[in-house]
């Protein structure tokens, strides 16, 4: 059903996709959530109405930087479409980010408007926004501004302009602002849809934060293929099962953590198919143990395709349903057409339309691309004779927990401020459910009382660290292992010591 892609020019915009899909299949469902649904025609109409409200009541125009920190809801998708209609620059912030990351994102992007959900899951986002000095706060959860579309300026015509600033921790304490265009996100979403071999009757699902770059890519996939998706504001099993079943979801997933949760729930229900309509789990963002692949296929009775991507390049490789079990279990899949992979000194480097334009910081951009214009991922890997990619390690000192990058250095710097911490090293350890778990290894002063994990997490919470970055394991050592030259901590020795099953 990829008739939308063939009808667009070389550099389409997200708004062009919305308009074209509404014209092709106006009455087909687009978004489903709880007892609500929205057709593609309604999606277009409501996006324009919200765009007019933002334009007239809040002064949002082409190029206005709008940050938003909202849960996965129909209203969030409408806001995204409305900003795309105006030609604003969007800066999505993951909802569980707190003062440190959120404040940096607002300052670095120079956001002129910050949309928040008010009090959500017990946390007051509006109060945080005001505390951080956001210039203009729009509190929106189930209501959005409305206006007359006749007041809007013409829609944007250039899909190559930077209109997205996503945030990734990378290897530094402060997040990096990743610059994307409509064209780069459309390239990623199109490649994802093609790899999944979608069918006319498929129904997808978005159970992860829509503010993740995967949210925009998934929206692109829905628009290109005219398929609906069920949105989950909060994902937890078994509570979410009713929605999967009642809407007849055929394609689900998110990351390794989601596969593990589905599998664990299936094991609680022997002899019963967890989601009768489910034919495929798909995702990426974290390592996938081969044994998990085989267990999912065997016990859930569906396919599993896993991919490799990052905020800078949301679609690098992806498994396909017609791949062999060996390749699906042991590799990250193959690159789509138009994605070049070069292995240089063991490092995976990339060039293609889905690659970001760089970072907000020009120095970071210069360091991220080699002389031939290939993006340096910092990941180590190799290509098989069949063109499948195997990842073997990372140059970057990051931890990937549930598909999110966590900077070890950021946590270490905060830990060093604790009076009972002499030196600290934070590492990622293999975890079947999360991909990796965060482990803090601490060398204490001689007279300090032994630290507990609860004390460490309480301290880090008080320092403003986001909940998803908190250590889940604490190890106390007499001395951290170091080399003999610069006395650098040898983290691989810590991983060997504490990473054993």
Automatic annotation (TrEMBL):
It comes from the Bacteria. Signal peptide: none annotated. The keyword Amino-acid biosynthesis does not apply. PROSITE patterns: AMP_BINDING. Residues 410-483 form the AMP-binding enzyme C-terminal domain. Residues 19-360 form the AMP-dependent synthetase/ligase domain. Keywords: Ligase. It holds the Pfam family AMP-binding_C. InterPro entries: AMP-bd_C, AMP-bd_C_sf, AMP-binding_CS, AMP-dep_synth/lig_dom, ANL_N_sf. PANTHER family: ACYL-COA SYNTHETASE, MEDIUM-CHAIN ACYL-COA LIGASE ACSF2, MITOCHONDRIAL. Belongs to the ATP-dependent AMP-binding enzyme family. This is AMP-binding protein.
